[in-house]
C-alpha cells in the first residue's frame, strides 16, 4: 500500500495560474501531464521523492466530465473555489477493494503531450465525493517507465492534516492506521464543516518545511 499522489483541483483562476502559484510556493516547475479522455479533465504534475507526485487538475467543458465520476468530483471541488481534492493509494491488487465496496474498478488513462498513453484502474471516487477525507485506490497498468514515479523529484511529502475520523479512514482502507502511512504523517483533526484534506506539509530543498 503506497501513498501515490495528491490531487489539487483548480478554482476559477484555471490550471495555468494555479500551477504558477504552487510552483512559486514549492520552488519547482510542474510538467504538463496531458488529458484524461475518459474523465474530461487535464492535469499538470510535480514529481516528488519516494515515488509520489502532486497533481493539479482542471475539468474541461467536455461530455466525459459530466458522465465520469472523477470529472464530477473535480467540477464540484472547483465550483467550491478549488483546493485539495483528495489523496490516492496505489496497490498491487484491487480485488479486495472491489469485493468490500461491492463494485468494479474502472479504467483510467492519460495521454501525454507527446501522445504516449498511461493506463490504470481505480476505485473509490464515489466514496471520496461523499466523504472527502477518504482516499481512493488505483492499480497501475502501464510499464514502470511510463509511471509518474519514474520521474523522481527533490521535494518530499511529509504529512497530511485531515479533518474527519481516523476510524472511518481505517474502515475504508481496511487496516488500522498509525501516526503515518507509508512514511507520510497523518494528523486527524475534529471535523469543522467539510471533512477532507486541510493542509499538506512538504520538505523543500532550500526552503525547509512548506505547508499548503
Distance between the terminal alpha carbons, to the nearest Å? Answer: 24 Å
The helical percent reads 10-25%
- Determine the CATH superfamily: 2,3-Dihydroxybiphenyl 1,2-Dioxygenase, domain 1
CATH class: Alpha Beta
Please compute the radius of gyration using only Cα atoms. Answer: 16 Å
Figure out the total of helices: 6
- Give the tally of β-strands: 13
- Taken as a percent bin, the fraction of beta residues is 35-45%
Which residue ranges are poorly predicted, with pLDDT under 50 across at least 5 consecutive positions?
none
Nearest-integer average pLDDT: 91
| Strand-pairing-aware structural class | alpha+beta
Q: Strand arrangement, largest sheet?
A: 2-3-4-1-5-8-7-6
The third-level CATH topology is 2,3-Dihydroxybiphenyl 1,2-Dioxygenase, domain 1
Q: Give a quick account of the main beta sheet: strands, pairing sense, barrel closure.
A: 8 strands, mixed
CATH architecture: Roll
Return the string of H and E elements. Answer: EHEEEHHEHEEHEEHEEEE
Q: Write down the overall geometry.
A: globular
Characteristics:
alpha+beta; 212 residues; globular; 13 strands; 2,3-Dihydroxybiphenyl 1,2-Dioxygenase, domain 1; 23% helix; eight-stranded mixed sheet
Structure characterization notes:
The structure is a single chain. 23% of the residues lie in helices and 39% in strands. It has 212 residues and is α+β, with helices and mostly antiparallel strands. The chain has a single domain (2-153), classed as 2,3-Dihydroxybiphenyl 1,2-Dioxygenase, domain 1, CATH 3.10.180.
